[in-house]
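Title: Prediction job returns without error message
Component: structure pipeline
Severity: low
Priority: P3
Assignee: unassigned

Description:
Job completed but the reporter wants confirmation the result is attached to the right record. Sequence as submitted:
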Amino acid sequence: MTQTTLPNTQMPLPRSNIKNWIGVVPFLIFAILFIFLPSVRLFIGSFTNEEGAFTLENVIQLFTEQYILDSYWLSIKISAVTALGGGLFGFLLAYSVTAGGLPKPLRSALVTFSGVASNFAGVPLAFAFVATLGRTGFVTTVLKDLFGFNIYENGFNLYSFLGLSLTYMYFQFPLMVLIMAPALDGLKREWREAAENLGATSMQYWLKIALPVLLPSILGAMILLFGNAFGAYATAYALTGGRLPIITIQIGAQVRGDVLHNPNLGNAMAMGMVFIMAVSLAGYSWLQAKTERWLK
């Protein structure tokens, strides 16, 4: 019996080509200049005093100064409220866009609006809300003159926790739409057909199949919304003028302020934000990995 030798079918390993890295070079330069180097500077500044010597005082103050702890807690509360509210409202809109049977032109308009609104923040957004819901804003004036209802005399205040959360919601829920629309489109039609063939109702399909599959993606998107609101600065500062002491405003006061001027303490506070954001992004990445097992 003769023994046959199979030909060697192993493909040669591709050689590394420097041309393949040319397109990545601008991103690497950008990441080094605007992410890596500033992070290193924040880390070094957090452990440096005004004379340039090593100290732990800045980090210790993060856990001992009550106004810093209150600022972190206020930022976390605003971020959590807007992440939950924007996540719920955005998911319902995303469902309407994808599986809800909206007309195609309306779907295109809503997706376009979400792309624009999710990036509409800062001073223009604050001015828009002041012109709409400020003490002399358009909606405030209409409600007062036509219906005799003064929203400020009934507890509403645009320049408070509620007002800032409402302002953040403007760019939170469109971001949720952009994140969840592809995930909802990834639900396989065969899953619904199989559930219906087995006698499941639409409610049973969503409770037992669709939502369990989408839950990691929903939670991951809400974590992303949390980070999006947690790092916001210009909108809050332009709207409240610093009267609502969230952590980003406190950092700005330490870096640029005349009274509270301690840049190294500001660096330490920023490092605290970096840590919270890193934990959020790690949770988001883990949840996205679980989602990709199904939505491919």
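Comment from assignee: result matches the submitted record. Residues 133 and 140 are 6 Å apart (CA to CA).
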